[in-house]
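Run log, item B.
One chain of 378 residues. Sequence copied directly from the ordering sheet:
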Amino acid sequence: MRYTIFFLLLMGWANTAASQKTGRPFGINLCGGEFQEKNLPGVYGKDYAYPTESDIEYFYQQGFKLITIPFKWERIQNTLNGPLDAENILELTNRLHYCAQRNIQVVLSMHNFGRYQINQTEYIIGSPEVSREHFSDVWMKISKALSAYSNIYGYEIMSEPHDMGAYDWFTTAQETIQSIRQVETKKTIIISGDNFAAAEKWLQYSDALKNLVDPSNKLLYDAHCYFDKNYSGRYKENYDSSGATEYTGVLRMMPFVRWLKDNNKQGFVGEYGIPDTDIRWLKLLQHFLKYLSENNLNGSYWAAGSLWDKYPLSVQPFVQADRPQMEILLQYKKTIPSKNSSYEFLLPASYLFVPNTTILPSKNAGEYSPASSNKKTK
C-alpha cells in the first residue's frame, strides 16, 4: 500500500488532465484593441485597431490555430447598459469569420483589469457607479451577438482583475457566469485569477475561484506568468539582475499547475513572454513551454500585432525576418501530454506531498514570493 501511495504522489505532478488524450493549441495574443487606455472609447484606426488579416495570416502560415483578441469594455459598450457599439462588433465578427475559414480558434478577452472608465475616472466593478449588473449586461449582449461563431475558444470575461477592494472578484465572476448561461450554454467561459492572474500567487489570491459554479461545466481558469525580477512583464532589469535561470518559468508555474490538479480544474496561460534582449531568455521560455506541454496546459504568448513598435516582447515579424522568440514558439504549437514530468527535480523541499492538498513554501521562499509590483504597460 505504501508503495502505491508513493507512486501516486510522485506521479501526481505530471498531468493536470490525465484523461486528455489530445493536445491543446498554443496561441498568440494579437493586440491593438486594448491600446490607448487613456483615450476611451477613442477612434478606431487611430487610437486602437483589431488585428489585420495579414497579422492573422502570418501566424496561421506558421501553424498556429489559436489567437487571443483583447478589447476594452468602453469600446464594445460606450455607455453602461447601453447597446453594443456596432463598429466594434462588426470588426470582431470580421475577425471571427476570417479565423473560422482557417480553422483558427479565438479567445475574446476583455482587458479592463476589473474596472470601467466614466469621464476619465475608473470605477471598480461592483461599486455603485459600475455595478455587477452592468458587467453581466455587457456579457449577455456579447454572448447573444456572437453566438453564431463556433470557433470562439472562450470568453475571457475579464483579464487581470486586481485590488478589487470590497467588491470581491469571486462574486462578480459567479454572477456573470449565471447571466451568460441565460443566453449561451455551449461556449467556454474563461476566468482570470485575481492579483493580475499571477500564477505563482494563485493559491493566495485566487483559491476561492475553485468554488465557482457553471451550469454548463465549461470553465477555464487563466493564469499569467512573466519572468522578470518583479513579475510585472516590464523587464526593466536584465536577465542577471532579475535573478533568472532557465527554470524560473517552471518554478513560477508550479503553484498554478498543482492547484489545477488538486481541484480537478482546467487551465490556460493567457499571457507569458520574454524580451529579445538576451539569448538566455529563449532557454527559459523553452523549459516553460515544455513544462506546460507535458501538463497539457496551453496558452497564448504575449504578444504580437502591427501596432507594436519596438516592444521587446513582440513576435510581430520584422520586414524580412522572424523575431527571435519564434524559434522557440514554433516548437510548441500544441501540447504533448506526458505521464512523466521532466521537472520533478525542481520540486522544493518545503512541499509536503499530501494527496489533494497544496502546501506552498514559506512566505520568504524566493521564487514563490514575488514583491508587489505594477503591471506592464501597453
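Observations after the first pass:
- Strands lie at 27-30, 66-71, 105-110, 115-118, 121-124, 152-156, 189-192, 219-224, 267-271, 300-304.
- The chain has one domain: 2-368.
Flagged for discussion on Thursday.
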